[in-house]
């Protein structure tokens, strides 16, 4: 469904349905909708994600790697985004340095079963195994900034 790191028609449909469902906050297990804005067209991109919890922090991970549209949008917006799961949270997504990503990636795979086929390290591997792929998968720490507006 994600040939070449891009969703096909069926994956896009499932993402739209999941994003709506996740935004209601009834799914649980860290399921949220992330809203970002394309900096060129100013169009809103809404997609489903899992917020991973690690050592008291919340993190979002791009299971499709560096080329994800939402990653480009977040970087262009200096981290500004909205997370929805029953309520809207205006957030800043701070990119985590590559050296700090391995344990977060491992925690993410334990919490997001749908991401497992996209990340080439098994969740049962030691944290050290994630060091070789950490640069390929952006990780952002979620920081609340208050407000309910658009990103």
CATH superfamily: Electron Transport, Fmn-binding Protein, Chain A
- Helical proportion? 10-25%
Kindly estimate the percentage of residues that lie in beta strands according to DSSP.
25-35%
Topology as a string of helices (H) and strands (E): HEEEEHEEHE
Rg estimate, integer Å: 14 Å
Note the overall shape.
globular
CA-CA gap between termini? 28 Å
Rounded average pLDDT: 86
Structural class given helices, strands, pairing? alpha+beta
User: Widest sheet: strand order?
Assistant: 2-1-5-6-7-4-3
Total strand segments? 7
Q: Based on the coordinates given, report the CATH architecture.
A: Roll
**Which ranges are low-confidence, i.e. pLDDT below 50, for 5 or more consecutive residues?**
none
In short:
The protein has 151 residues and is an alpha+beta fold. It contains three helices and seven strands.
Molecular structure report:
It is a single chain. The protein has 151 residues and is an alpha+beta fold. The chain has one domain (3-144): Pnp Oxidase, Chain A (Roll), CATH 2.30.110.10. 23% of the residues lie in helices and 27% in strands. The chain is built from 3 helices and 7 strands. Strands 2-1-5-6-7-4-3 form a 7-stranded antiparallel β-sheet, sandwiched between helices. Strand 3 (52-54) and strand 4 form a beta hairpin. The longest helix is centred in the N-terminal third of the chain and has 15 residues, at 9-23. The radius of gyration is 14 Å and the shape is globular. The two termini are 28 Å apart.
